Amino acid sequence: MTQAPVPLSKTPASNLPVPTTLVPTTPASASHGNASARIAALLRTAILGGEYPPGTRIRQDDVAQRYGASRVPVREAFRTLEADGLVTLIANTGAWVSRLSLAECDEVYQTRDRVEPLLLRYALPSIDEAHMDHLDELATRMERTDQVEEFLRLDREFHLGSYESAQTTVLGDLVRRLWNTTQHYRRAFTLLLDEPAARMVHDEHHMLVAAIREHDSDGAEHILAGHIRRTRLGLARHPEVFDTQP
Amino acid sequence: MTQAPVPLSKTPASNLPVPTTLVPTTPASASHGNASARIAALLRTAILGGEYPPGTRIRQDDVAQRYGASRVPVREAFRTLEADGLVTLIANTGAWVSRLSLAECDEVYQTRDRVEPLLLRYALPSIDEAHMDHLDELATRMERTDQVEEFLRLDREFHLGSYESAQTTVLGDLVRRLWNTTQHYRRAFTLLLDEPAARMVHDEHHMLVAAIREHDSDGAEHILAGHIRRTRLGLARHPEVFDTQP
DNA sequence: TAGCCACGGATTGGATACAATTTCAACCCT
DNA sequence: AGGGTTGAAATTGTATCCAATCCGTGGCTA
After folding, report:
1. Is strand C in 7 Å reach of the CB of B71?
2. String of DSSP letters for A4-69
3. At what angle do helices B195-213 and B148-163 cross, to 10 degrees?
4. What pLDDT is stored for residue A10 in this prediction?
5. Distance between CA atoms of B181 and B136, rounded to whole angstroms?
6. What is the pLDDT of residues A120-162, one digit of tens each?
7. Which of A153, B56, B198, B238 is most buried by its number of CB atoms within 10 A?
8. A-chain residues within 8 Å CB-CB of B118?
9. Mean local confidence (pLDDT), B82-94
10. Rounded Cα gap, residues B48 and B54, in angstroms
11. pLDDT at residue A28, as a whole number
């Protein structure tokens, strides 16, 4: 069942067309009509994909030209992204891709630690067999890949996917926001995983699926909380991830 | 020490100038410069103050005229308020004051139940004596008032005030959002409190201050979680609060 | 040489006018 | 009477212009 974990390398398989986010980040990839929503979606996937690293300045005019729109919808998109925690706006000055300090990142993980188990509890009763099989498959594919970007994508699809069947309105959005703000640091941290640490991550994923299969809400909550907590402690051991001075 | 609780009546003392929100809802009452931030702040206090009940439609033109601005900053303000959960935007159609179903409100309270104790834990070490005395005074004033709006204001200042000294960046905002979205239902629910229920609310407030004084993080977390949980269960017993069909 | 101030370019913020798109509801036709 | 259509009203987007603000540069001063 288990597979020898391979240390993850950063080199992407190729410059394949970015598969956008598999689990829609907010509404969906708004494609037609609403320019402001479309621009927000495109910028969001660009930021999450690492195209704009934290601290990067984003200019209204650039974005407007790049996406063939005027500045008004771009400004609205900025406000949306600010609410997502992806962008930091400073009045009369500009927009920057948000950057978290170690303390702030720790805070987000503490919050996730409390909130995601609750969301999973909401979702659990409605997860059907096919969905469980899918989660299992994702966990296995995560073990087998050695591409960071693919791992991140699978991890996101695994966890957010496990919450998908929750019929929640605010909690789901809230959790997606928390994931978005920490996406970049998750990438950095993934690169630092050594073999035993990666082994534990994968084991926890499989244990989580097992608990879900047994409809064991308490068990699933417990495993998930531990999973998040362990990641938080791991990040705290690597403060250098947050050192990127401008 | 304790005071005979008086059933709360809805009649306000008078149409005094609305004292805005004592605990700033987001940045502060932005007064000059940024029109979009100013409009967002004004609309926010208007909505929280019950001036626009849930389900009310808000037109860009009206707001623009009322606050002497063009529609561009109004639209940005809408986006900000949407992120606050105060307004629901529907593309090409308009903006409405958000309305929660019982299930959604329950969801928010479940979330608060998990998140606010954590925030209190962050804040607790930095709460000084003067602050504790202030919290005590607020709890006492809450017992003595019979005005709903004043109770709401004091309750907000008590709880959000107790989190104030937490040096958090995301958690504080998150909790404020959760408070904002449920403000209206808190008002409706407050009117339904009978005497023993009110008594218990007040007792919990005093117990919370006592735990804070003793720097008992676990105890404070526990009391606060119970406080929120009890409110949630109380709301669930009054589904009629959510029945306001358009 | 170090520090401070003023100036000017660049960028954001806002106003206005107008075109485009969408929604919704009344209306007409079969 | 029911279903499709049209048109008013609202939002959304574009274009243009100007004001306000910020930031770096350069020069002046101690």
Report:
1. yes
2. -----BS--S--PPP---SS-SSS----SS-HHHHHHHHHHHHHHTTSS-TT-EE-HHHHHHHTT-
3. 20
4. 46
5. 26
6. 999 999 999 999 999 999 999 999 999 999 999 999 999 999 9
7. A153
8. 110-111, 114
9. 93
10. 10
11. 35
pLDDT of residue B243: 78
Which candidate, A193, A189, A55, A217, places its Cα nearest to that of A109?
A189
Contact between B159 and B176 (Cβ < 8 Å) = no
Show residues of chain A in contact with B26, CB under 8 Å. none
Which of A105-109, A135-139, B3-7, B75-79 is the least confident region? B3-7
Amino acid at A17: P
Please write the tens of the pLDDT for every residue from B46-68.
999 889 999 999 999 999 999 99
Closest CA to A179 of A104, A84, A102: A84
Strand order in the sheet with B87-90: B57-58, B94-97, B87-90
**Residue B163: pLDDT above 70?**
yes
Per the CB < 8 A criterion, the answer to whether A55 and A88 are in contact is no
CA distance B177 to B113: 14
Q: State the average pLDDT over residues A170-177.
A: 95
Query: Is A192 exposed, middle or buried (CB count within 10 Å of its CB: 0-12, 13-18, 19+)?
Result: middle
Residues of chain B with Cβ-Cβ distance to A37 below 8 Å are 91
Nearest to B169 among A91, A107, A178 (CB): A107
Taking the CA of residue B97 and the C1' sugar atom of nucleotide C25, their distance in angstroms comes to 23
Least confident interval from A206-215, A227-236, B28-37? B28-37
Is the Cα torsion angle A34, A37, A43, A46 positive or negative in sign? negative
Q: Which amino acid is at B204?
A: E
pLDDT at B32 over 60: no
| pLDDT over 80 (residue A206) | yes
Alpha helices in chain B (DSSP H): 35-48, 60-66, 71-84, 102-123, 129-144, 148-163, 171-192, 195-213, 217-236
Interface contact flag, A170 B110, Cβ < 8 Å? no
